[in-house]
Amino acid sequence: MNNLGADNFVDLVVALKVSPPPWPTVVAGVFVFISLTPSSYLLFEHLSTYKNPEMIIKAVTAVLAVIVEAFDVYCESDFKWGRG
Q: Which string of DSSP letters, residue by residue, matches 25-69?
């Protein structure tokens, strides 16, 4: 049986001119807009009223450390499971 790789799949989709229906894209766009609008507003309001930059630096450092640590753990577990 012929193994269908990612490049072959893309070529197949292009050759068949298959495209998803437009309604899922519209629905997803509406939900993204609905979620980003209040989030952006609340973030702006929080940052504009917060007056202690030393605390902001500590909070951003903590958030970035969590993100980097999570990525590191993900990479380690991916490599461990991939070798087995």
A: HHHHHHHHHHHHHHHHHHHHHHHHH---HHHHHHHHHHHHHHHHH
